[in-house]
Write a structure and sequence with these properties.
With 341 residues, the chain is an alpha/beta fold. It is 46% helix and 9% strand. The strands form 2 sheets. Strands 2, 3, 4, 7 and 8 form a 5-stranded parallel sheet that branches. A 3-stranded parallel sheet has the order 1-6-5, with helices on one face. The longest helix is centred in the N-terminal third of the chain and has 33 residues. The structure holds zinc ion. One of its GO terms (molecular function) is hydrolase activity, acting on glycosyl bonds. This is Putative xylanase/chitin deacetylase.
Length: 341
Amino acid sequence: MPSLSLRITAGVILLLGICFCFFCFYPIHANAPSSLADDETGSKVSQRSDTPHEATAAIDQVKNEPNKPQPQPIDKNDASIQLPTTGQSAAATEDEPQQVDQTSPEEVTGSNEGLTPSPPASAEPIPDSTNQLIKRVEGIHNMVGITFDDGPVPQMTEQYLAVLDKLNVRATFFMIGQRIKYYPELARQVVEQGSEIGSHSWQHDRLDQTTADTIAKDLLSVANQVQADVGRSLSLFRPPYGRRSDTLLTVAEQLSFKVIIWDVDPRDWEDPPPEKIVASILEQVKPGSIIVMHEGHPNTLKALPDIIQKLRERGLEPVPVSEMLNHNQAQLDSNSTIGGN
Ligand SMILES: [Zn+2]
């Protein structure tokens, strides 16, 4: 019987073995999909953990990509870009949003002169005044320069002059040569009223992007026109849009022109309400300031009496720019400790 017992025992062991194997191995297979899933997930996690590296590699690849966009070189013909080579002109129009003298095409209509449209305004910072480039006259305590650009304008210049005359004020009119040629009588009225004329170029072209020869011809053509029509010589020049270059400043100096820009700009060419023009000027103005305004704008005309009155209330008398310059020159002469320049 031991053999029977042994067989039974062996059979039980075999059975247990089969069961053991079944229960032990079944879970593996039962969970197989999950395990695989975990494994895949792990793989994915592993892949995800590599993702930043891949991304970095991708970025590196982009960085090394020969077609990657590079900083664009400065387009020297782009009117909105202030070139470093223009040195003191670093601007636009400041602006310096406030520093850009911008004449809209509408401002120069009313004649058949074919004046060019203005370039876009730019944020052009206006540099401090130099001996030749003047945005404000230092050393002045009770005066401000009052200037009107872009004239003469028929039916408007006369009205500006009437207001000035009534309030016993004289101003500087930076005029366009071609307009003087068309309306010489208006230019003469400006001088008869006691105001002065400055050059604002022949036809309001950008002169900061052109040659010395072109600039010289432009300045001389306006000066000759004024001499012929009004009998006055010119000494003040305001470049269109306030844009200047080293070349422009050099030529202007050679021809004995002071380049006059401004430190107060109410942006009247945008035709804000008169009270806004007044408020803007009062906000910015200081003794010795140079205020830029424009001819041909009804709101500027309406604002003018208030501007003059409020400036006077502050003890600031509006005068032509040359009067402030002459005042300083007289001071220099009386104190003259330095040789003439
Ligand atoms: Zn202008």
